[in-house]
Amino acid sequence: MKPSDRQGTSNSVLTYHRIVEAFKFAYAYRALLGDQDFANVTEIVKKMTNPEFAESLRQKIWDNRTFTDYRHYGDFYSNSSQQGTSHLSVIAENGDAVAATTTINLYFGSQYRSTRTGIIYNNEMDDFSTPGKKNIYGVEPSESNMIQPGKRPQSSTAPSIFLDEDRVARLVIGASGGTKITTAVSLVMMNYLWFKPNFAASRSRPQASPSVTPDAC
């Protein structure tokens, strides 16, 4: 993408339509991912990072329509949202960069606190899938994200540092907002690094955060 892709109403509408459709594929295939120590995700990660696979998905994006049948994007299910998240991004004068996201997941986490420290415990377990049971948001379970001892649940947190070809930090970013985190970080990155307005404009532009369903264009 390039700055001219967002010049004029027609170009902007088409560009964001394509981005939204691409996000739907990303959410569909996300359901296949899980803790690599427990789920065999090597092949799916290899596939998802293959330019030929990306091109095959690009061919499925139509400029004049969306698809009400979610199986067009992938017959998978994704993970839950989180509601108790904060993020901190720092760039030091010497170029050192830190992106840190912390969360207790839902509002007030597990709704239990330590009687000694007063710290509220998280309920990150809700990020796991439970066989035959929808999560608190009504999301169907994902096979790769089932609960196992010692396993990490799938999370939307995405603290990110983007480097240029000289390994210098160009953008340090993260977000809160549950499953909207990944699309928000992606859109700000696209705005700032591809469409090239200043950062304030990149961050304040309207956001699009679709999942596979319901249908959106």
UniProtKB/TrEMBL annotation:
Active-site residues, as the UniProt record annotates them: T85
GO BP annotations, alphabetical order: glutathione catabolic process
Family matches, as Pfam families: G_glu_transpept (PF01019)
Residues holding L-glutamate: T103, I104, N105, D127, S155, S156, G178
GO molecular function term, any single one: glutathione hydrolase activity
One GO cellular component term noted in the UniProt record for this chain: plasma membrane
Taxonomic source organism: Desmophyllum pertusum
Name of the protein in its database record: Gamma-glutamyltranspeptidase 1
